[in-house]
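[Structure tokenization] protein backbone as discrete codes

[Encoding] learned vocabulary of local backbone shapes

[Begin record] amino acids and matching fold tokens:

___
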Amino acid sequence: MNNMRAFLGFIRTRGLYLAAILVMVSSVHTGLRLGGRGGAVFEAQAELARQEAKKQELEAISSGLDSMEFVEQQARDKLGLAKLGETVVILPPEGELRKLAPREDEADESFELEKRPIWRQWLNLFGLP
């Protein structure tokens, strides 16, 4: 009988330990699952802010659709039209423009002008000594 009580006490103690471990594991699992969703909430809030800004921009554009200035601006931008006496200038895409005329801070510093006189550079270009 004493052995039986000792055995039941042993099982009860181990059962309590097992239950406590299960509760802890479940708590950690739930915490991790909820913590992972926190990033999704921040991303959704950022997306909402972007969409609201876009909506305000579109509302500003739609409020000016009936104005003559808007029609004129669209004709200039999209169709390349101009008023009498104006000249339309079409520039290459931004990347090509940067290659042709980089800003001073973006200029290739390895490029250095030749020190020879220009007439000598021309002679060299045509293969003359």
